[in-house]
Amino acid sequence: MHKKAHETRLYRQEMNNRILGSGFKPFQRFFALDASAYDEGAIPVKYKEMMGLVGSMVLRCNDCIFYHLDRCVQEGATREELHEAMNIALIIGGSIVIPHLRYAYEVMDELFEEKAKSQGGAS
């Protein structure tokens, strides 16, 4: 089981603040470049985040999977869209992606439950 979504977000923010607060310019430049890659452009943010999710699953980074799933849900991705994106990751990465697909499903369910509660309904 993973940490709860709010704990993961808090940890990520705290550590990013520590890293960026170090004053080390190469860290700051990379983080800025990473953030700007997901800005609105010819490709909408939701689709960029889904691409990030696919890449994260293929690269087998659960921290990144959490982040991109969280952003996908925030950007309005549906379960069906996420299923298709995860299927692409599975096709590209093969069976080694399955443990990360399990993790992604667990996180996705939590994020949709959280969203439904915040909107006063069911997912």
Describe this structure in words.
This protein has 123 residues and is mainly α. The chain has a single domain (5-119), classed as Up-down Bundle (AhpD-like). The protein is 76% helix and 0% strand. It has six helices and no strands. It has helices at residues 5-20, 25-37, 45-59, 62-74, 79-93, 98-119. Helix 3 runs antiparallel to helix 4 (62-74) and helix 4 (62-74) runs parallel beside helix 6 (98-119). The mean pLDDT is 95.
Observed structural traits:
single chain; 123 residues; mainly alpha; AhpD-like; globular
Question: Quick recap of the structure?
Answer:
The chain is mostly helical and 123 residues long.
Record the SSE blueprint:
Layout: H1 5-20, H2 25-37, H3 45-59, H4 62-74, H5 79-93, H6 98-119
Count of discrete domains: 1
CATH topology (fold) name: AhpD-like
CATH class group? Mainly Alpha
Sheet with the most strands, sense and barrel status:
none
* Annotation, overall tally of beta strands: 0
